[in-house]
User: Fold these one by one.
Assistant:
Number 1:
Amino acid sequence: MEQMPFIKMHGLGNDFVVLDGRQAPIQLSADQAAAVADRRRGTGCDQVIVLQPPKNTIADFHARFLNADGGESMACGNGTRCVAAMVMDETAKNHLIVETGAGLLDAERQANGLVSVDMGPAKLDWREIPLTDPVDTLHVPAGSGPLDDAVCVGLGNPHAVYFVDDAEAVQIKVFGPVIEQHKMFPQFTNVEVVHVTDAGALRMRVWERGAGVTQACGSGACATLVAAVRRGLIDGRKADVIVDGGTLTVEWLPDNHVLLTGPVATSFTGTIDPAMLRQGTAGAALAKDVARAV
């Protein structure tokens, strides 16, 4: 196995290692993905994204998302925006269709340099999210400590959104992993804690399924906006969502699709030594950065 090139990208600190398998196939096991994502022994990231040729001929490429623990995610809002921007730069296009496990997602470059992605329809039925029991998804009895009465939304991934007086005060590292694996969520769940700011924005902190606390979560921001609209906590169907890494803008469109907009950035490029992939996490220290770019 030869050295494997990668690109390190992020959307507001939600960071990704991008591997390009469009020309030569790349197959990563869960252990190998976790080795790459390891922040001490590997390259370090919230998710590994593998680009592949699309199965659907109308799509420009397929994106496979692997969480930091090696588990697969069907969609990732910030990750989709990052890899769409990368391919837009390659092709001089301003609009792309990205094939994901959650379906085809439209991505578009905005005039101000931001990148938008249509995350598809918000899933509000308990069977689609999915939940284990037939409950009202606007008031789901699943929580831990001060977090209860969740609003649950499916956006490629399941999300449990909790509205609180002060999101900063919640010990999300304590309660997030407990809720992630609550019996109500057969596929586990992302956990968002949110309060509405005086300016009408949504302050969100997130515990991501399979990744832990992250600086931003695109699908989580989308779920948060949908949950706030359903609870009647904001005016209209569009708002800024303030995450640890910055601000995303989310709009719940009349056709039930959710539009996510924000910045993207490339941190650096490098190569992964194949010994890391052979040895798993124990060999991840062999990841080597070979070039840096803004």
Number 2:
Amino acid sequence: MKNDNLKNQYRVNEQIRANEVRIVGDDIESVVMPLHKALALAEEKELDLVEISPSANPPVCRLIEYSKFLYQMKKRQKEQKAKQVKIDVKEIRFGPQTDEHDYNFKLKHAISFLQDGDKVKAYVFFKGRSILFKEQGEILLLRFAKDLEEYGKVDMMPVLEGKRMTIMISAKKAAPAKKEKPAKPQPAAEATEE
């Protein structure tokens, strides 16, 4: 459960082990006092004493309703998660003797991936005896990287791993957060005049 993780993270009231604590709150200036006085103050104001920084000396506690405190923490975590940018890795597969048309088709897709802010992992897969053409595969991947240099930068030069030769390319600048594609508008019924 998500709430149990947050609830067990903070000590509240009698769970606090320190002899002295630093009290902070909305209407209280930072004060150091013995734990029993801090608990009495919290009870007097009908609030909870929540240990927010146990590693400080003395530990920092806050006078606040515990449920309100948990709500604020969940809200803050949600905001931080929303600000994170997720980068996907898109794979593009080539053969050692890929045609020009197929190459251009895959290049067009790679450009759109990089413009969306994704990374592109392009690889040449060698089947059977086609491993003899590994130089062609390397030339193909280097050409691919050169054609994409205005959209992205090469993170990893071509490397042969088993029967795959791989190259990684990442977008030059981070794209804005991905948006859902808007639904296509339905054609309006056309009125015919007679």
Number 3:
Amino acid sequence: MRIGIIIGRLGGVDGVALETEKWIEVLNRMGHHTYIISGQFEDRAINPEYETLVPEMSFFSPESYWGQKKAFFYPDSNEDELIDHIDLYSKVIYKKIIEWAHKNNIDLLISENASALPSHLEMGLAIKKVIQKLGLPTITHDHDFAWERGDRYISPYQKINDLIENTFPLRLPNSIHAVINSHARQILKTKYNRDSVIVPNVMDFDKPFGVRTGKNSYLNQNLGYESDDILLFQITRVVRRKGIETAIKLVHKLENKKVKLVITGNYNDDAGSKYYMELIELIHLLKLGEQVNFAHHLFNNKGLTSRESDLNYSLSDAYAQARACTYFSTYEGFGNAFVEAVLAKRPVFVNNYKPVFWPDIGSKGFKTVMIEEGRLTDKAVEEMKTIIYNEDLNREIAEYNYYLGKKFFSYDTLKEKLQELLEKAIKAA
């Protein structure tokens, strides 16, 4: 089958892009031919045989940027001008997608979050028109929705709100939904009477990951630590919902100067660096300056792995040197960092972020120390201490979790789910 994938951005560490690349890989393994149309191919050249660039589809294009700012952030009095702008550029994108679909003889379409989250109004509207015109079976891979973002996608213009309500998420007879957690499935059913298939985020359990190498053996020293220091890793961006303050408080409660917390992600997505400054204040208050390291400058943060010759470390290198990982998020659409730790055979300490963690991940039977509402109870801290210091138990837990991860969140799982989706989409059309 010739499958066309529509996405705003491919490449980098964006969750939608990462999962899309996994879908592409597995679909190709299944014998299908995948063709990608995107507004951006980050940090690499495109393969013109299978990939098509449409700049207007980029989230950072002048067209999309202007539409988002006027619709949600800096509205002016001319609502009709805004609507005309969205209509005009949706037609530009529509025409280019139609030409791409015909050129590549596409049999089935996959819209990667572009028909779920209204972060590119023009593209979402164009995709809806394309699917109506072509009548092709369509899968919308819905990672997150407008209502999950508070008031981010509520406009002062009623016509914009009507457009969002009628377009996001896409609800056409020849389309079906793939969602990443059971809560999303429930909301779609309750709100729109739309059925969906849960496709969890997955990892390739057949490739080495988090393996110690000659390169990452020097990571302690490059962080300014001793070779026998114990490293806990927070492998996330610095944004408030990651609950990094809880990881910092854990280091304080462990009362061991040899334990260090390393935070790999940057704070580019922290508006005004407000949360980052709060963390700095907490570190200062608890006198942990020598034990907490914001180390994004050492990590490339452009993917999970890298070449041995790359100057920066990869996230695989980080997991390789971790004694355990902290993941005290307050909300996640799924929880990639949890599965990454499982794949790397590293224990992970987690907050029961609602409504996703326990129903979709924790209930599978993973051995971890789980806290509630970010509270580090004495019991939880003692359990974490045991796992950190008892290396035999540490390995036993990691091996057990790896077995479960491979069972529930591997490419084999994705293959089964994709086959189910393809069959449902063809039947729906």
